[in-house]
Amino acid sequence: MVLQILKIPFSCSYSFSSKYSIIFSSKLPYMSQIYVSGVKTNGKQPFRSYASLNSVKPQPSRKKKRLDEICLERFEQYSRTYIQSWILQGKVIVDGRVIHKAGTLIPDKSVVEIRAEVPKYVCRAGHKLEAALEQLEVDVTGKVALDSGLSTGGFTDCLLQYGASHVYGVDVGYGQVADKIRKDERVSVRDRTNLRYLSELPQKVDLVTLDLSFISLLTVMPAVVNLMKEESTLVTLIKPQFEARRSQVGGGGIVRDPQVHKEVLQKIINGIQNHGFQCKGWIESPIKGAEGNKEFLASFTRTTVPNAEGSSLTEDAIDSLMRENYIEKQQMENASQAESSNQEV
Question: Do 281 and 205 sit in the same domain of this protein?
Fold first, then answer.
């Protein structure tokens, strides 16, 4: 809409926001307000003038920020890991052009688009826990959970999506939790907290999930037992690189020997059972660790009866289960490949 020259005074108030508009109000009572789109402003500064208006262009902002920081501010539902990955993949568009470096400084008024598939969870860890909940038949609906090793919040995100009523998120680090998780009213975040020395929570929990690094799971078990109800569930992510002896870990921190995997599984499962738990099953994680390490997930139920003699998981049992898991995994992969071939035909 083009305004003719108005020989009347009017005032203009404007404010910077995510909505682009200027509101012109006449000083005369019989004139209505006119909304003009396409302008982004900051603050309120009324003035009087005479004008002929065709279009108004915003003044460019001189303030610049890192691209990944701007993305985190505008797309707070996604983690820094996802944002930086998308930038490297060329899926972030700034004012119509692709930028591949997260540290690139851009004006904070730039138009930023993310052209990537929306992830189900705030980070990859959510898919790991999902596999355990589904394959090991762990019900979290309506339960109060403790998620230790919170990090970005992948496990917590999965727990919430599967119906947990509240999650206490514990991590020794600080500032890693995705805003989506931190701002959720069902989540209580405890940064800079070492689970080993956590003596109590506002309530005993029904479920504990562990995703720990640089420490053995067995070292935190006394604290875990203290925070759980008598009838409760434990789901752990077992990382051989942090459980094996140093001599068993290869270059780059990767454990490649299947025999070491078996030894670690046997040690951790039996060790947890010695704290009053019964192993209900375990699976290989569908996603490898950040460095390419094979990882495992195990589910336990807490029992009031001490672990009976002879109930320890033997190496033969571990070997048998690993063989079953491998065969099942191969069958699923073969079925998937066959389905893809049929679709191509």
Answer: yes
Token couple for 172: 């020794």
Nearest Cα to 145, choosing from 94, 213, 91, 211?
Answer: 211
**3-state secondary structure at position 170:** strand
Q: For residue 8, which amino acid is it?
A: I
User: pTM of this prediction?
Assistant: 0.66
Check whether residue 74 and residue 192 sit in a common domain: no
Residue 222, domain CATH: 3.40.50.150
Does any domain span residue 338?
no
Residue 341 lies in a domain: no
Q: Domain of 99?
A: 64-114
| Tally of domains in the chain | 3
The pLDDT of residue 181: 94
Q: Which residue has the tokens 């339960």?
A: 143
Give the Cα separation of 214 and 246 in Å (integer). Answer: 12
pLDDT tens-digit series, residues 120-129: 998 889 999 9
Cβ atoms of residues 154 and 122 within 8 Å: yes
According to DSSP, the residues that pair with 189 across neighbouring strands are 169
Question: What 3-state DSSP class applies to 97?
Answer: strand
Report residue 237: phi and psi, to 5°: -95, 115
- pLDDT given at position 136: 96
Would you say residue 334 lies in a domain?
Answer: no
Mean pLDDT of the chain: 79
Query: For residue 61, what pLDDT band results from cuts at 50, 70 and 90?
Result: low
Q: Which residue has the tokens 């390490």?
A: 293
Q: Assess whether 106 and 196 both reside in one domain.
A: no
Residues contacting residue 206 through CB under 8 Å, at least 6 positions apart: 143, 144, 145, 228, 229, 232, 233
Distance set, CA 124 to CA 127, 166, 335 (Å): 6, 21, 24
Nearby residues of 254 by Cβ (< 8 Å), 6 or more positions away: 241, 291, 292, 293
Kindly state whether residues 223 and 207 are assigned to the same domain: yes
Coil, strand or helix at 220 = helix
331 in a structural domain: no
Based on the domain organization, do 74 and 207 belong to the same domain?
Answer: no
- With 0-12 CB in 10 A as exposed, 13-18 as middle and 19+ as buried, what is 64? middle
Let me know whether 148 and 34 are in one domain.
no
